[in-house]
Automatic annotation (TrEMBL):
This is ABC-type dipeptide transporter. It comes from the Bacteria. Keywords: ATP-binding, Cell membrane, Membrane, Nucleotide-binding, Transport. Its main location: membrane. InterPro entries: AAA+_ATPase (IPR003593), ABC_Ni/Peptide_Import (IPR050388), ABC_transporter-like_ATP-bd (IPR003439), ABC_transporter-like_CS (IPR017871), Oligopep_ABC_C (IPR013563), P-loop_NTPase (IPR027417). Belongs to the ABC transporter superfamily. GO terms for cellular component: plasma membrane. The keyword Nucleotide-binding applies.
Amino acid sequence: MPLLEVNNLEVCFGLRSGAVKALRDVSFTLERGERLGVVGESGAGKSVLGFSIINLLSRPGHISAGNVNFEGKDLASLAPEELRSIRGNRISMIFQDPMMTLNPVLTIGVQMVECLQAHRQISTSDAKRIALKRLQQVQIPSAEKRLDQYPHELSGGMRQRIVIAIGLLLDPDIIIADEPTTALDVTIQAEIMDLMLNLCEQNNVALILITHDLGVVSQVTQRMLVMYAGRIIEQGPTKEIINDAQHPYTQGLMNALPQMAIPGQKLNQIKGTMPPLQNIPTGCSFNPRCEYVMDICTKKLPPFTQSGNCLVACHMVADSQHGPQQEKLRSEEV
């Protein structure tokens, strides 16, 4: 049984103009110790997926269909007290901006001790000892001194390391990292990602890395999901997707990387923009931007097609997979 299993997940936001689906029919699994990347443009539903896994959606957002099973338990149906025992304890989340995570009026030590004591029967001295050990694990210099400092006294890179240390405090089974390096400069980004990778490997922690950076995904994750307009459109082994993307949208993301452009010429880009959730096109939601669009793309939602070790929601891929078989059947009939 997978550690985490998401089945046909649907998330809606109730607006005055009517319900808007932010996630549609999202399904995937996560094994213990596995590293999974979630990529896509802003507005694709990546962060909503992270929040919905631990049922941290704010009203009017809610899970309207499907389930999120953690070790066989549906997190969406748990009582608040039981969910709190898992959220932050067995499953922790690292957010984009550490200053939104850390309390500005409490010292780092107080915040880490409170986190430990909220989930464990533990003395303050033992909690401080564990907190100090975690800060040392994330390579914070003068770790003991940092326990008595406030978030504003630390650099952005140090604050993000502290957030990672808090995420690891209770030995979670899963860490959901939502754009953990967005607010950091490039050199610090590489250090933080190397640190997270090493810590996950050492502690056998599963990682869900939400990002728009395909370069980071290719180096850190083993499998990846590509999202567009609230739906997964391609998923499979990271190396296979990076080396041979099947969906036109994934191909567009790959071609938009700076290293794919000819020096001195404009960067490649996907024409158009992602549709608003209130106005998702009929059929394949990518069809207004797709250079390979066919008539069926504007009428019918593409089902998932197996391509190698990947699943791809694209009519063009489905035709290429089924075409030879159909020709064979027709020749046999003749």
